[in-house]
Amino acid sequence: MDISKYQIFSSVAKHQSLSKAAKELGYTQSGISHTLARMEQEFDLTLFERNRNGASLTPAGRELLPFITQIVQCQENLEQTVAALHHLEKGSLSIGTYSSIARKWLPYIIRNFKNDYPSVTIHFKEGGNEEILQWLNDGEVDLGFLSVSGSDRNKIEWIPLARDPLLAILPPDYPLTEKDIFPIERFNHQTFIISTFGIDYDIHNMLKTNHITPDIQYTAKDDYTILSMVECGLGMSILPKLILDFAPYHAKALPLKPYASRMLGIAIPSLKLSSPATRTFINYAQDYLLSLSS
């Protein structure tokens, strides 16, 4: 099966540009245009709206995108599998991840992986839960490092890696009677700052489970912004420990009582249909996290 037309469709959809797709794939712009025109004639559908700013998917094109992306991915996975059977180490890997995992885990996992597979190209994109799950669904990434709720786990395959404690973040001058822990009920009706990056359901669910109703007066997308606001005495918050490991901050950070955490892991559409590079990278991630706990 000639899948070049699907590769062209996928590239134009990604770049929203015929010229950028032509550069990426090594075609002429007119060749890209003719291929799309033949596809539209074959499907009897208009797939792209073309204008001076580029090319954007039509509603029909957006409907077809996930299926075409799967075809392109399956072809690359097939090529990588054949290469692996011939003991050739090549391929590419796209990863969606939290920024905290990108800082704390990924550099070491990638280093270990690249030491053994230097010719595999790795790209990663940072985002929140909704973004990463959407990238997985659209085929923009091969795997995602994130925390996934029960309902979302029904749509993907899930490989748990490690628990990340949730900590109370308090102003530097906050008076404490218990210096090692922070009873969660103290958040009730207190001025609270919460992240809107990907809608932090881990924290929302933890508060809901414990019947805590803080006074959410501020929201921020960036976790460092939340830390800065807490340091200035604008309220209190809850953040995962992994975020604090590389953050210079003067706020107080205490474990919660009762203990609360999020489970971080790897989400993939299908382990069985994943490329050899994806499956091998997952093994390296598991080995690295195992080394941290030993």
Question: What features would you describe in this structure?
Answer:
There is one protein chain. The chain has 294 residues and is α/β, with parallel strands linked by helices. Among the domains are: 1-65, Arc Repressor Mutant, subunit A, CATH 1.10.10.10; 163-261, D-Maltodextrin-Binding Protein, domain 2 (3-Layer(aba) Sandwich), CATH 3.40.190.290. Helices cover 45% and strands 24% of the residues. It contains twelve helices and twelve strands. It has helices at residues 4-15, 18-25, 29-43, 59-85, 99-104, 106-116, 129-138, 150-153, 201-209, 223-231, 241-244, 276-293, and strands at residues 48-51, 54-57, 91-97, 120-126, 143-146, 157-170, 182-183, 191-195, 215-220, 237-240, 252-257, 261-268. The strands form three sheets. Strands 3, 4, 5, 6, 7, 10, 11 and 12 form an eight-stranded mixed β-sheet that branches. Strands 1-2 form a two-stranded antiparallel sheet. α1 packs across α2 (18-25) and α2 (18-25) packs across α3 (29-43). The longest helix is centred in the N-terminal third of the chain and has 27 residues, at 59-85. The radius of gyration is 23 Å and the shape is elongated. The N and C termini lie far apart (48 Å).
Secondary-structure blueprint of this entry?
Blueprint: H1 4-15, H2 18-25, H3 29-43, E1 48-51, E2 54-57, H4 59-85, E3 91-97, H5 99-104, H6 106-116, E4 120-126, H7 129-138, E5 143-146, H8 150-153, E6 157-170, E7 182-183, E8 191-195, H9 201-209, E9 215-220, H10 223-231, E10 237-240, H11 241-244, E11 252-257, E12 261-268, H12 276-293
Parallel strand pairs: 3-4, 3-5, 7-11, 8-9
Antiparallel strand pairs: 1-2, 5-12, 6-10, 6-11, 6-12
